[in-house]
Amino acid sequence: MVNIRQLDRVVEKEGTGLWLALDDVMDPQNLGAIIRSAYFFGASGVVLCAKNSAPLSGVLTKSSVGSLELTELRLCNNMMQFLVSSAKSGFIVGSYHTSK
């Protein structure tokens, strides 16, 4: 995975322009399912937080049903700074938060 600071350096190919920024998804099966859904719905890629994400593993690969190999994955060190930087560079940033 490539470490990034904001999206404008990443979006190079054609796509929807939709990137999912995921923070605190620790379960590899859930992360695999989200990546699978992102690929199915045509997202350009997924950005994960380096310290608050399930590690890449066989479980994640299996639950993504192969879409992990086809989806652009990027890694950021601080999700809030990443979102602020991407918003300043012109991306529309929205959020959805679930309570535990």
TrEMBL record:
Keywords on record: Methyltransferase, Transferase
EC number, UniProt record: 2.1.1.185
Span of domain tRNA/rRNA methyltransferase SpoU type: 18-93
GO molecular function annotations of the record: RNA binding; RNA methyltransferase activity
A Pfam family per the record: SpoU_methylase
Top class in the EC scheme: transferase
Xref: SUPFAM superfamilies: alpha/beta knot
Any one of the GO BP annotations: rRNA methylation
Protein name, as recorded: 23S rRNA (Guanosine(2251)-2'-O)-methyltransferase
